Amino acid sequence: MFLENTVNHEEQFGWIEVICGSMFSGKTEELIRRLKRAQFAKQTVEIFKPAIDTRYDEEMVVSHDSNEIRSTPVPSASNIRILADGCDVIGIDEAQFFDDEIVTVCNDLANRGIRVIVAGLDMDFKGNPFGPMPYLMATAEYVTKVHAVCTHTGNLAQFSYRKAINDDLVFLGENEEYEPLSRAAYYKAMLKERVNKFDVKDAEELQAKLKNKNA
User: Fold this and answer.
1) What residues make up the catalytic site (predicted)?
2) Distance between CA 106 and CA 17 in Å, rounded?
């Protein structure tokens, strides 16, 4: 598990820690754990989350295990830079929902000597890199990837499969809308989706084309 950087106390630069993974993998739980350790050490800590995330509480950052810590909801990444003055540690939850400026903000804060801890989904429901997360992971000193348990196989899960019929990239939800899947289970689920969407008319047209081609 990650240990706080104590190598060179004279260095005036901070650093970035990224906690990433699928839904239900414990990202927020780990973020809260690190932030509370900093608070116990009498460090000045501020936590931010995107204003659109109101699933559990409008102000609190809450994990699936109901652990919580007070935060400041902000509409954009630029607000974090303004509100971070005088802090030793900054926590950011659900970073994938922020605009791309979050990458510059995090690096600016680290360059000012602040420890920045970021948690977020590394992939969206389609299995693609999610928003600014790849860039945050690339510039971070420490990256921790946590895993959920696949609801189909019991193996480690790194994909967030969307059960709800909704193609919006940003779609807030919980157990009813999402489930964590392993690579094998996710591949099978996506293949099943494609088969179900394959219209009978499309199949007939394809069959006719193949027949004409072989004629």
Assistant:
1) 94
2) 10
Q: How many domains does the chain have?
A: 1
Residue 154 marked as a ligand binder: no
pLDDT at position 182, please?
96
**Residue 211 belongs to a domain:** no
In the chain, beta strands by DSSP E: 15-21, 45-50, 60-62, 68-70, 72-74, 89-92, 115-121, 142-146, 148-149, 156-157, 159-162, 178-181
The catalytic position among 59, 94, 141, 174 is 94
Does the annotation flag 158 for ligand binding? Answer: no
Domain membership of residue 30 (yes or no) is: yes
Structural domain of 38: 15-188
- CATH number for the domain that contains residue 172: 3.40.50.300
Flag whether 215 is in a domain: no
Q: What single-letter amino acid sits at 157?
A: A
Of the candidates 31, 96, 93, which has an alpha carbon nearest to the alpha carbon of residue 67? 31
Gap between the Cα atoms of 188 and 83, Å rounded: 45
Predicted model pTM: 0.79
- Reduced to 3 states, what is the DSSP secondary structure of residue 148? strand
Give yes or no: 94 in active site. Answer: yes
Q: Beta strands of 115-167 (E only): which ranges? A: 115-121, 142-146, 148-149, 156-157, 159-162
Least confident of 26-40, 51-65, 126-140: 51-65
Q: What is the pLDDT of residue 170?
A: 57
Is 8 a domain residue?
A: no
